[in-house]
Design a protein that fits this description.
By secondary structure, the chain is an alpha/beta fold. It is 50% helix and 15% strand. Strand 4, helix 5 and strand 5 (127-128) form a beta-alpha-beta unit.
């Protein structure tokens, strides 16, 4: 085997490992929670509500110093329950390191930035970048990714996922942006693996419907 073949084999093996990690993280439930800009106390309360409901995966977007404090505390509480906590809105390589230092188990980005993806791969932490077009999906696949965030999902519509599965059958999608108990089922029926909800967790009227989706 040539040196380039060895390097490529190592890269493929590492990518497979990261994909398997996301398979495990998202295997427990078809929903995840995004706690954007909620502060420490509210983030803790909603993360706990999500876990109690049966949502295993919680993401805390990392945009302010308060977000970092919330992320660290949610990571700590998640560890007590054996839950993986992700850091979202990762836009720079510096944020990759910041999220790692805070204990994040995976990263989520609003868009596809090859430098940020490679930085995550070099640090062996799974990353879920955002895509909205076939070209972005193709570039992500070329970077070795098999899990992607489709954003904004409400704007893309459920049919987008039915069409995109044709050329990219090996890609698993997390739908984020405008998702709640009213429309999450439509996206799951269209082939989305996971739907991300946020403020819906504070709406008592939505909790039974979310629980029903988790029982699917």
């Amino acid at each position: 085997m040539t040196t380039s073949s060895v390097d490529r084999a190592h890269t493929d093996h590492a990518a497979t490992g990261r994909s398997a990690a996301l398979d495990d993280i998202f295997a427990g439930a078809p929903l995840m929670a995004i706690l954007r800009g909620m502060g420490l106390e509210r983030s803790v309360r909603l993360a706990t509500a999500a876990w109690d409901l049966g949502i295993d995966s919680v993401e805390v977007p990392l945009q302010t110093a308060e977000d970092e404090r919330a992320l660290r505390e949610v990571v700590r509480l998640g560890a007590e329950r054996g839950k993986a906590v992700g850091a979202g809105t990762i836009l720079t390589v510096a944020q990759v390191d910041q999220a790692l230092a805070a204990g994040a188990a995976y990263l989520v980005a609003p868009g596809l930035d090859a430098d940020v993806v490679r930085a995550a791969q070099e640090r062996d932490i799974p990353i879920l970048p955002g895509v909205a077009t076939p070209s972005e999906v193709q570039r992500a696949v070329a970077l070795g990714l098999t899990w992607l965030k489709a954003f904004p999902a409400q704007w893309l519509g459920a049919d987008w996922f039915r069409h995109i599965r044709g050329p990219f059958p090996g890609v698993s999608f997390v739908a984020t942006g405008g998702m709640d108990a009213a429309n999450a089922g439509l996206f799951l029926d269209a082939g989305v693996r996971v739907v991300a909800v946020g403020s819906a967790l504070e709406d008592e009227s939505q909790l039974p419907r979310l629980a029903a989706l988790l029982a699917r």
